[in-house]
Design goal:
Oligomer: heterodimer
Helix content of chain B: 25-40%
Strand content of chain A: 5-15%
Strand content of chain B: 25-35%
Shape of chain A: globular
Number of strands of chain A: 7
Distance between the termini of chain A: 75 Å
CATH architecture of the largest domain in chain A: 3-Layer(aba) Sandwich
Distance between the termini of chain B: 40 Å
Number of strands of chain B: 38
Order of helices and strands of chain A: HEHEEHEHEHEEHH
Strand order of the largest sheet of chain A: 2-1-3-4-7-6-5
CATH class of the largest domain in chain A: Alpha Beta
Number of domains of chain B: 5
Largest sheet of chain B: 9 strands, mixed
Helix content of chain A: 25-40%
CATH superfamily of the largest domain in chain A: Domain of unknown function DUF4159
Radius of gyration of chain A: 20 Å
Structural class of chain A: alpha/beta
Largest sheet of chain A: 7 strands, mixed
Structural class of chain B: alpha/beta
Strand order of the largest sheet of chain B: 20-19-18-21-22-28-27-26-24
Shape of chain B: elongated
CATH architecture of the largest domain in chain B: 3-Layer(aba) Sandwich
């Protein structure tokens, strides 16, 4: 019995140790990833970013109200979604793109060298005034921001509050199907809600109360899109799980088409 | 001075000898004189050798020579040497005296106005006119832009708008051609600024041996003066284009000093530049500026007057530029989506005068068109020649030369050389040397040599500094102020890429270089003229970093691209165009009009009916059919007398049968009373040339007193021959004295007397 009790204590200790290790490791990984600026060119087998015309750039934004081990959401689907999407870019277009992404914080001095950035889960986006000012300057100079994978009223409210720090007065407008962004590479003739992986077990295309997908945008003074907002859809999951047999190819293809069009639009407008 | 000595020694002035004929008037034969002279020499020789044994042979030879010469001179005088000259018959000949009455004659030299100096010399009661009137029927004329007869020099006003010297001479000759015209006297500063007379008129004066005597008035040069000699500017420009005015500045007496050169539109100063004067009298200064308003505008280039300047009126000149409200079309063919493409398009977004139509290859089989006017535009890809020629400029991006078929390459070649369009080649991984352009016919259009094929890639993804050359600084400007403009270029972030090019071709102009971190310089922005058009290269695709790495409010990137592309298309001609020989005719009325007529394939059309319609400033309308040039294809010319001063609009319409080929319009300006202040120094070379061409002479006004005697020997008019003895010339006696004196001195030294 005592022996059995000892073994239970030992197992418990081992489990605790494992949990501590896991938590520490997880935190370490989180910490590491939340410091993307320390990524160096040697981390990329395809070589440094300045040898390519296009680099898929993921915006590493923080959301301090989450728990410590959940200090950010920017790395959702990272890096698989990015890399699979890039394979599509290389396959369909003649853009000289690197097969690996680049992660940058809003305040990174390198931000202006990458005129296209992708931000995921902006429902948990939090921008400091300095970051908002930097993003505003970036967009006014000609940078292009795509936000993706956020759903429902609550997440929209957060996103809207944050993007208002960037552009307090510019309207957020619905993007019509006639807009060049839907035709600059692929002709996209209908708007389809692209579900996340949860669709496989929930059977729902939507998440939370985000029943209707919206393609919204903030335009500049010459009616060019600066911020492309994919609301109530999850292109990132569709890219990430494009190799997953259960995820419908229909949505993956549609998400790829959208992504490539966004990129071609960003490089032509 | 030497003329007075000549006349003292030889009794008559040089002109008498040049116009007269020498003869022996005794009636005895000339051979007899030779025989007697030889005989005398023999007798003297015999005497010296036989009767003068004390002299050495050398001394005898010298004495023999001297004595023989004395005898020869004396014998010559017995034969009565004479000069036969033609002498004017008093009051039978006409003498025309022309006096310059243009505004430059009102200029004061040494405290006295030029016209007053002439009035004093040609005063009715003065000695000169009295002496001339004793011999000739003197007709006094004033001339400036026209010629009129006046009663006396007191009628001179010195207010004429210009001096048409040669034209006036031709007119006088025409008026007096049936009268015995003995000569023409011209009193002028020689500041001729009208059209030259026909060569035939002066040739006739020369053939009739009517001498023109010119009296130069005014200072030959000013101690201190600045002058704008010329301003060369394009006659048209697109709004917001950088216009380069090439200003020729002349200075005298300001070595080492500097003055401010400026260009104004009305009262607005558009650009200033400091000019420093070196030892050269003339220097050419480029001054670039951006016209502020649209329409026909007058731009004035001035140089600030410095202290002690003789004529401040010649410190400025004006020119017209039509800032056209038109839209030039540029076709941009790009081989891959890239940031340079995006930011180039954005840079031109707000420029309503440039329409960038682009054909972007987004994948092997997909093209994306932007800036098209209708669904048909570029629907078939790169347009054929006829459609291509509707564009003003062409940009070739990162796309392999093999993308263009041989026919398309030929079309692009003709687009530049014949159509007169501008072609800009950008750098890129599939561009220039890396795109195989060195082995295509398009290489001819490039202002630089391309690296040889087979070498490693010439396109480099490395940051390089963009540095304008002095020629680049003359053409491109970020701001009007010279210093802040220089700083603006310095502050530009590095280009992200560059492409290694070979040497610039002869005639190419390198506007900017890429300075690599190791310090090597590569041409990055250059152009050359090619046929009727221009070829340019911008060997990078990294200028977009200027946009992304500078404040959103900084417009350097946009300004750069606008200026580059305006430069590319500004001079692209319309199929039918018309221009006057000058944009400003100062004190000239004869205007030469030239029309160029090409069809839609830019082939010159010689059989067209070309009519110019002229709208003078007085509100009238005149039509002038232009005649085809026999020497140049597609060129039609005409001449027009533009009388009132002001701005003239000229429209041209070309038709071939019932079909209209095209229309065009341009402007020129006529102004009076301006040129008098430019180069108002006495033009001695012109006055001398005029006089010497006709057998006359040039004299400064203060030596006008020699004219009566000079004119006495004029070969023209009604004359009688007169034989004038020369035996009593002082020169003979001086010669005899010298000969005998020399002999005496020698004999004294030899102690033989």
């Amino acid at each position: 019995m005592a022996r059995q009790g000892k073994s239970h204590v030992g197992f418990s200790l081992l489990l605790l140790l494992a949990m501590i290790l896991a938590a520490t490791g997880g935190f370490a990984v989180q910490y590491y990833i939340s410091k993307p600026d320390i990524e160096t060119d040697t981390d990329f087998v395809d070589g440094p970013a300045d040898q390519y015309e296009y680099i898929f750039t993921r915006l590493a934004h923080n959301y301090p109200n989450l728990h410590t081990w959940q200090g950010h959401t920017w790395d959702t689907d990272y890096p698989k979604a990015d890399r699979l999407f890039l394979q599509g870019v290389l396959r369909w277009t003649n853009i000289q793109a690197r097969r690996q992404e680049q992660v940058l914080r809003p305040l990174s001095p390198q931000l202006f060298a990458f005129p296209f950035v992708y931000a995921v889960e902006p429902g948990y986006l939090h921008l400091s005034e300095e970051e908002a000012a930097r993003l505003r300057e970036y967009l006014l100079r000609g940078g292009f921001l795509v936000v993706d994978d956020f759903h429902g009223t609550r997440e929209w409210q957060n996103f809207e509050a944050q993007i208002r720090k960037v552009f307090p007065d510019r309207p957020i407008q619905e993007v019509e199907l006639s807009d060049p962004i839907f035709h600059c590479f692929f002709d996209i003739e209908q708007k389809i809600q692209v579900p996340g992986l949860q669709f496989l077990y929930s059977g729902h295309l939507y998440e939370q109360d985000g029943f209707i997908p919206h393609w919204r945008a903030i335009y500049d003074d010459d009616h060019r899109i600066m911020v492309m907002i994919n609301f109530n859809m999850d292109l990132g999951d569709a890219w990430e799980w494009s190799d997953f047999p259960q995820y419908p190819e229909f949505y993956t293809s549609y998400a790829y088409r959208l992504g490539v069009n966004y990129l071609v639009y960003a490089m032509t407008h | 001075m030497w003329e007075a000595i000549f006349k003292f020694l030889f009794k008559y002035p040089p002109v008498a000898y040049s116009r007269g004929r020498l003869t022996l008037a005794s009636g005895w034969p000339g051979w007899a004189l030779v025989v007697v002279v030889l005989l005398a020499a023999v007798v003297v020789g015999f005497y010296l050798w036989k009767l003068q044994p004390r002299l050495s042979p050398r001394q005898r030879l010298l004495v023999w020579s001297l004595q023989s010469l004395v005898l020869a001179v004396l014998l010559l005088l017995l034969w009565r040497p004479s000069l036969v000259v033609s002498i004017m018959v008093p009051q039978r000949n006409v003498l025309a005296v022309l006096v310059d009455d243009s505004a430059s004659m009102a200029m004061a030299d040494n405290g006295s106005r030029r016209v007053d100096q002439v009035r004093k010399v040609l005063d009715d009661s003065g000695p000169l006119l009295q002496q001339l009137r004793d011999k000739f029927q003197v007709r006094l004329y004033r001339f400036s832009s026209d010629v009129t007869r006046i009663a006396s020099a007191a009628d001179l006003k010195a207010a004429g708008p210009s001096s048409h010297l040669e034209e006036s001479l031709a007119e006088i000759h025409s008026e007096l051609r049936h009268l015995p015209l003995a000569g023409v006297v011209v009193a002028s500063d020689g500041a001729q600024n009208g059209p030259g007379a026909s060569p035939e008129a002066l040739e006739e004066l020369k053939a009739r041996q009517i001498p023109i005597y010119t009296l130069g008035v005014g200072r030959e040069e000013f101690a201190r003066d600045l002058q704008i000699d010329d301003v060369a500017m394009p006659s048209t420009a697109l709004p917001d284009s950088s216009v380069v005015a090439t200003v020729t500045v002349r200075q005298r007496g300001y070595l080492g000093q500097s003055a401010r050169l400026e260009v104004r539109e009305g009262a607005n100063v558009l650009k200033t530049r400091e000019v420093r004067f070196g030892p050269a009298a003339v220097q050419t200064v480029p001054l670039n500026f951006i016209p502020k308003t649209k329409g026909l505008r007058e731009y004035t280039v001035s140089i600030e007057p410095l202290s002690g300047e003789a004529i401040p009126e010649n410190n400025s000149q004006s020119r017209l530029i039509e800032v056209q409200e038109r839209t030039a079309k540029i076709l941009y063919v790009e081989g891959e989506p890239r940031w340079e493409y995006k930011f180039l398009r954005r840079a031109l977004e707000e420029d309503s005068n440039l329409r960038l139509v682009s054909l972007l290859r987004t994948s092997a089989n997909k093209f994306y068109r932007q800036g098209i006017e209708n669904e048909q535009e570029l629907a078939e890809g790169l347009p054929g020649r006829k459609e291509l020629f509707k564009y003003d400029g062409l940009i070739v991006g990162s796309i392999n030369a093999s993308f263009f078929s041989p026919q398309q390459q030929e079309d692009i070649y003709a687009f530049v050389s014949r159509r007169g369009g501008g072609a800009l080649f950008l750098g890129g991984r599939e561009a220039l040397g890396d795109g195989g352009y060195q082995s295509s016919s398009l290489a001819d259009l490039l202002p630089v040599q391309l690296e040889n094929p087979g070498r490693s890639a010439s396109f480099q993804r490395k940051p390089v500094k963009f540095q304008l050359t002095p020629r680049g600084l003359e053409r491109l400007q970020l701001t009007a102020d010279e210093e802040s403009n220089r700083e603006g270029w310095q502050k530009l972030p590095p280009l992200g890429t560059y492409q290694i090019l070979g040497e610039p071709k002869p005639g190419a102009v390198v506007l900017a270089e890429a300075v690599a971190p190791e310090g090597r310089h590569y041409p990055v922005l250059a152009f050359q003229r090619f046929g009727r058009g221009r070829g340019m290269v911008f060997a990078t695709d990294g200028s977009w970093r200027w946009r992304m790495e500078m404040d959103a409010t900084n417009r350097s990137h946009e300004t750069f691209w606008k200026q580059i592309l305006h430069f590319l298309v500004n001079d692209t001609p319309a199929p039918v165009s018309i221009s006057a020989g000058k944009t400003l005719y100062m004190d000239e009325q004869r205007v030469d009009l030239v029309a160029q007529v090409h069809d839609e394939n830019s082939e010159p059309v010689n059989g067209a009916a070309v009519v110019a319609t002229i709208f003078p400033p007085d509100g009238t309308t005149q039509e002038l059919p232009l005649q085809p040039s026999t020497a140049e294809d597609g060129i039609f010319r005409g001449t027009w007398e533009a009388k009132p001063a002001g701005v003239y609009r000229v429209e041209v319409a070309a038709r071939l049968g019932d079909r209209e080929i095209g229309k065009s319009a341009s402007y020129f300006q006529r102004a009076d009373g301006l040129l008098e202040f430019f180069s108002p120094e006495q033009n001695v070379p012109l006055l001398t040339r005029l006089a010497e061409q006709t057998g006359g002479r040039y004299y400064p006004l203060e030596k006008a007193g020699v004219l009566p005697e000079q004119l006495t020997y004029s070969p023209a008019g009604v004359t009688v021959p007169e034989v004038r003895d020369l035996w009593d010339m002082p020169a003979w006696f001086l010669l005899l004295f010298l000969l005998k004196g020399t002999e005496w001195v020698l004999r004294k030294r030899w102690r033989t007397i």
